[in-house]
Design goal:
This protein is of the alpha/beta class.
Length: 380
């Protein structure tokens, strides 16, 4: 508990009534109710708002579909989402608040650095963190407890990206990364480049929440790279690509999955292309059962909700949370501890997306590259 006290001080948590942080949750105990509650801290506002909203919509769709079966299963699922605006300190504050509620687990956090900074809370509160929407390698380090990652880490994405760049004859590589991210992420990218006998010609650190990226674009253009690899949220990529395109930059752009559906939407609208890493199946692949089911279940949440790579990731996280809750309930004990125990041994296939936590904290190995052409089509 001492580490949680230090974290609370570091994140400058204000003294708030629990009801203000719980978003209207009932005060009834789980033993008296069939409601299974989960907590989420996500960027519902700010530069990563679309990312957070898509993750939440996906989880909500999975929960709505499961709750529709309450008469048969005896369980109803609820999600409380607290906005962190994409800021590390806000995420830490939200995690502390949610740990003090009756949430059985936390899931779908969208700040990797915030989740990593909150690791002592998950351990001390003995609450599982499932499916953070980040490849942050700090969440995958040895000794980390109560963290269950669905998407692959940045290192797996980098290996695919650098291999692709090497195959297409790229020699001069520029990289753009978030200055507040863990150093291990940048080192993993450099190692992946070194493994294919490449080294970055220019490395540019950016503030993910900045409004102006002119200096970053100028630095990249001056280095004349054959390609630029981004590990950032969508907004900085879109602005830098726009500036470099205006300067007639002839090279290619590569983006990690952290850029999300927002990058696809914005570049498509401007008829600009990019190669992007994805950690879930293509949302247009309706022949894949989990994709088709996601599209059907989204209609339970909102007529305006649309499938995309980030929404699908959230949906998969929600489906895994539901399966783990059912398994814990069938054992006669749906508690934080039991939920974590079930996750640690969970093996399932959601329909074209296998998940296997057995023996570790990494559930999926899926990673793919897609190319967005200037007409907005996903190819390759």
């Amino acid at each position: 508990m001492q580490r949680r006290a230090l974290l609370r001080a570091a994140s400058a948590v204000p003294t708030l009534g629990l009801g203000a942080m719980m978003g209207g949750w009932s005060s009834a105990s789980r033993a008296e109710s069939r409601v299974v509650r989960f907590g989420q801290s996500a960027s519902m506002t700010g530069g990563q708002a679309a990312y957070g909203q898509d993750m939440r919509n996906g989880i909500a769709a999975a929960f709505a579909a499961a709750s529709a079966q309450e008469g048969r299963t005896g369980l109803r699922f609820e999600l409380s989402t607290l906005d962190d605006g994409g800021l590390r300190a806000n995420c830490m504050k939200n995690v502390l608040a949610l740990a003090d509620t009756d949430a059985v687990a936390m899931l779908g956090l969208t700040s990797g650095v915030g989740a990593e900074a909150s690791l002592p809370v998950f351990e001390d509160a003995r609450i599982a963190l499932l499916g953070t929407a980040s490849g942050n390698l700090g969440l995958r380090a040895k000794g980390v407890k109560n963290v269950y990652n669905l998407r692959v880490g940045h290192d797996a994405e980098y290996r695919r990206m650098t291999g692709y760049a090497k195959d297409f004859g790229m020699q001069r590589v520029g990289i753009v990364y978030m200055g507040d991210a863990a150093a291990s992420n940048l080192e993993a990218l450099k190692k992946s480049l070194a493994d294919v006998n490449l080294a970055p010609k220019v490395s540019v650190a950016i503030d993910r929440n900045a409004a102006n990226f002119d200096a970053a674009a100028r630095e990249l253009l001056a280095a004349k790279p054959d390609c630029v690899m981004f590990t950032t949220n969508a907004e900085p990529i879109c602005k830098i690509v726009e500036l470099m395109a205006a300067a007639k930059y002839p090279g290619l752009y590569y983006a990690s999955s952290y850029s999300g559906q927002a990058l696809i939407d914005k570049l498509s609208a401007r008829q600009q292309s990019c190669v992007m890493s994805v950690v879930v199946p293509r949302p247009s692949s309706i022949s894949t059962p989990v994709v088709a089911q996601c599209q059907r279940d989204l209609a339970l949440v909102s007529k305006d909700a649309r499938p995309g790579v980030t929404t699908l990731e959230g949906y998969i996280v929600g489906r895994i949370a539901v399966e783990a809750a059912y398994a814990a309930q069938s054992s006669g004990r749906l508690s934080r501890a039991r939920f974590g125990e079930v996750l640690s041994a969970l093996r399932t296939d959601l329909g074209g997306f296998p998940v296997d936590f057995a023996g570790g904290s990494q559930g999926s190995r899926f990673v793919d590259l897609i190319a967005l052409d200037r007409y907005g089509r996903l190819v390759g």
